Amino acid sequence: MLSERQQRILSLLVDSYLESGRPVGSKTIAERLDVEWGPSTVRAELAELERNGYLDHPHTSAGRIPTDAGYRFYADSLLASGPRVLTAVGPRLDLGKMRREVDEAMRETTSELSRMTDLLALATAPPPATARIHRVEVLLLQPRVVMVVVIASNGAVTKRVFTFETALDPGLVEWASSYLNEALGGLDVGSRMLQAKLAAPEGRAEQQFLDTLAPAFTELEDTAESTLFMEGAARLLSEHRMQELEQIGAIMQVLEHRRALLGVLRESLSEPNVYLRIGSENEAPELRSMTMVAANYGLARRNLGAVSVIGPLRMDYPGAIIAVRQAASELSRFVAEVYDE
Description:
With 341 residues, this protein is an alpha+beta fold. The chain has 13 helices and ten strands. It has helices at 4-20, 26-30, 39-51, 68-81, 102-117, 170-184, 193-197, 204-213, 215-218, 233-236, 248-256, 258-267, 317-339, and strands at 55-56, 65-66, 120-124, 133-142, 145-152, 157-163, 228-231, 275-278, 290-299, 302-312. The strands form three sheets. It has a five-stranded antiparallel β-sheet. A hairpin with a 2-residue loop joins strand 9 (290-299) and strand 10 (302-312). Helix 1 crosses helix 3 (39-51), helix 1 (4-20) packs across helix 4 (68-81) and helix 5 (102-117) runs antiparallel to helix 13 (317-339). The radius of gyration is 26 Å and the shape is elongated. The relative contact order is 0.13.
């Protein structure tokens, strides 16, 4: 366990390194007005912190830099400090004027979060099964072609086109639209009752028609790839950061494989606080030169998704934690209004 002096010196070193990007020596810390220890004392404590794995000592410099463990201590100290340190300043995400469409809110969140932090921002939309069927439209596009439009309570819209062998009776199409709205309206997208509700009481022709349209409702959940929203890859890979990232090629691979990122973000849903993974703590090899900061959002008793930023180990940890927390809080407010409709 670190002494209070070691904790203080380690925090000062990480602060200095995050600001300058250069290895920090004992003299830099000792010369601070708020430090009462001399260079020799600081030097001894830095050596001890290095032996314990919190600092590294580059061969080309007399100064030291944080290791993953050093960053972890620093981040944990920030989280433990609460509102005294992690107080939001500057611009805040505001979804109050957004239309009640979840996809639009996700895009706005990732765009603003990336702009505010200068990092890669990600957000997972609520799973389709958490929404309800709000309205159904069955449209006759051509004599043999029908389009089914399903509008969910979260604003999501899915469309599916069906082609039949023979021309359809317009009255049958009109009946189906009315019947499906009455039978399916208000049901959860992932409800097991959907299939049962697709049983038509009128007759064989109506039932055959509904059987053909059934996949438009029973396969609404199969949209995992579209639930991840991402913005700011260019910021992450900008020229001034190229030397901070050790695995550019691997990072590009994980950005291309959206399911890998979805899996990582889903892990954060069980975290009651900020989900923070630094360097080697990330299970995905592609992220082991990165830091991920995430927080979940949702309803009072149900987490629906996560919002996150990803960046180099040397990032503005207080700013990233504040921004992610605030974005998650704003998304929670937004989805609470949408799902209460």
